[in-house]
Amino acid sequence: MTTVRFGLLGSVEAHLDGEPLDLGHARQRWVFAALLADVNRPVPTERLVERVWAGEPPYRAHRLLASYLSRLRRTLAAAGGVEIKHGPGGYVVSVEPEAVDVVLFRSLLTRAREGRRPDLFDEALALWRGDAFAGLDTPWAEAMRETLGAERLSAQLDRTDLALQLGEHNAVLADTAQRAAAYPLDERIAGQLMLARYRAGRQAGALEEFERIRRRLADEFGADPGPALRELHQRILLTDPELSPPRETPVPRQLPAPSRWFVGRDAELAELDAVMAGGSGTVAISAIGGAGGIGKTSLALRWAHQHLTRFPDGQLYVNLRGYDPTGAPLRPESVVRHFLDAFGVAPAAVPADPERGFALYRSLAAGRRLLVVLDNARDAAQVEPLLPGSDTCTVVITSRNRLGGLGVRGAQLLDLGELADREARELLIEHLGATRVDAEPAAVAELVRWCGGLPLAISVVASRAGANPRFRLEVLAQELRDATARLDALDAGDLATNLRAVFSWSYDALDPESARVFRLLGAAPGPDVSLAGAAALIGLSRPRAVLRGLVAAHLVHEHVPGRYRMHDLLRLYADELVDEAERADALRRFTDFLLHTAGTANRLLRPERQSIGLAAPAWPPLPLADRRAATRWFDEEQHSLRAALESAGRRDAHDDVWQLAWSLSGFHVLRGQLVEDLTAWQAGFAAARALGSQEAQAITLMYLGTARTRVGSHADALEHLRDALSLAQEEDLTADASRALGWALGQSGDFEGALRHTAAALEHYRARDNGLRQADALNTIGWYTAQLGRLGQAREYCEQALALCRKHNHHRAETVTLDSLGYIAQALGEYEVALAHYGAALALARETDDAYDEPVILANLGDTHAALGDAPAAREAWDRARELFRAHGRAGDAERMDGKLASAAEE
Questions:
Q1: Which of 68, 245, 464, 725 has its CA 20 to 30 A from that of 139?
Q2: What is the 3-state secondary structure (H, E, C) of 473-510?
Q3: What is the full DSSP assignment across 301-327?
Q4: What is the H or E stretch that residue 381 is in?
Q5: Which pLDDT value is given to residue 553?
């Protein structure tokens, strides 16, 4: 099919399949340009004459027009879809509208403005080759040049505004300066130049530009700049922090590497191309369906890597684990947290409410040329919350389930079938080489037949053959022939090929120790396992060599250094092979490894907490040197820990459930993962109740109550904490429950009740000489005493608490105590002292990743700035506090910040 393009934004041009067309002499080109200006609309003959010759038409102008257009018809005859006709309304040129650069320019601008797409702005502006209708010198042409020139300038200014919004101030500085020189009285251009210079660190240059245009306006018109430019000038003088460039958003590059061996699928790749080129105005979605092992993921990743340049703003990837034999599919709210982390959203800023998390994800994806690969989906319900809403995004989904619900929404459903025999043979050649495959055509034909066209099966066969290069392929064909019914279909109608036979002879080729390790890896909860976790699971202190062998056999994948996972089909097969006693021992070792290491890490993060009694571990935990090592280990293992907790719940391992909840809790609060903490403690309390242990119930109710307090569920929290206090028998636990109840009462506004319960706890901590808990209790008493207006007494309590914090290196308590002292100093009118305390508290909170307390400190800091008359600093602190409160789901605190900001705006 031929492609024709017409250019009016410069000299009048035409191109057919990229080659220039000769449109004749200048006057003939101008006739064609005058007609193209109204493409697909008739232009009366007299109007056409006026456009070309103005008031001086030649003799027999109509006949000349007919002659010129007849020649143009002959020139354009080879261009399909282009016609020049004459009718009652005059002459008309019929062609695809966007074949004319003026039409394409305006269309691109509309899409660029609607989608905030810098690439479309650039594409539109690149169509210009000079002045529009160059060479045509008539009043009509001059008017068109002026109109289109104004549209071009408007597009350039809109593109510059968008660049400034995206933090690209350095990139537009030179062009904006030239534009300001060309249009010295344009206040919008002057404002853009001022902002670009200011953000580039050239505040003086920004102020010079304002002074230049101010003088020019005064000299020529006796006028001052408009309100918008004057306001910008004032904000630059005050170094308004809101003028700072937006923070750069990381560009996620999450795609795994594509398969080394890939053949065929040309038609499917072309279908994916067609969907992405559709331009329907909505997000492009392709859902690749097919049997397990059919190569859905390989196809998706191959296509994605072939088109990386289409997605310069990033690629997101997640395995949704929709068909996982050992655990539930990933929840969309868990996945969206993973995506927000890839966008650089701090954990503490991730909304607790799932719907708000999805909304934030869609907002961050909007306008980005982004690829999202959702691998191994269970059903449409799992996928739908993860679909971005912007037509700049592309989504590729793989699933064993045909996602008909997405088809209704406009997704392209691509069913992936088996490889043809020829392609399967090519895949074997890719693995083994042509010489070996060609030497045994009958055996190869049988291998291809038994593999059923499944790429995974063929790869496993090839791996076995490659590991034994002296074995004849006939031996493998004979083994495969004898074992055709070992692996049932994964689900009804999804898998009807003989994968069990493929897996069995691959497994049988392993030495006994490798076979045992393969079986046990299939029992691991969670998406993957670390090297240390694998050591515990399989009971080997040095497992790297055996794991390397399994990786070489394509039975295990080291997807990141030191972390191992299995394809879900292989995990299912391994899980069938392991006996219950073997599985129970492996899970005991693995759970104990995680539980005891997490217990050590939790004590490093929260040394003030009373330890719980754990049974001797079946496998030794990792040694962790310090708080930083503990945090790093939690970051790496949090998914395995939560999966282990869920697995223990399914197995009714109640002690493991509540003890894992205890071990995870300190990390959850540190990272601001309040919803995860609440979920863990709900499971922990259910497990403690099932055990019938009064002590375990008291502990879990105490922490469940504090978790509910953090998310603002005060009534339920107080009920849990009173129950915990009534159940607690051991004195230390009773004191902790009383202190926790006191804190929760204070959070709900009962300051007298808070003091009463916290004082009872303090008396016990002093009797036991527990300095860490004394610090906690003294600060709590100081804070709530200050709330009651007894500031001098409150300061004494908090100063005692601060001394104990520093004596015992109790960093978290030191943070909140400094905040309390800042509040007290502020209430006494000692504003500079308050600022010093708040500054120290904020620095320590950020140093120790104390996400929960940071917004409280910021809110109080804003109050002090306001009292000192520093309104910009106050607004900045309150705004950041509001952002963090909202992220944690602390709606009441966020509304309080709304009120402060609204009041400040009115002043």
A1: 68
A2: HHHHHHHHHHCCCCCCCCCCCCCCCCHHHHHHHHHHCC
A3: HHHHHHTGGG-TT-EEEEE--TT-TTS
A4: helix 380-383
A5: 62
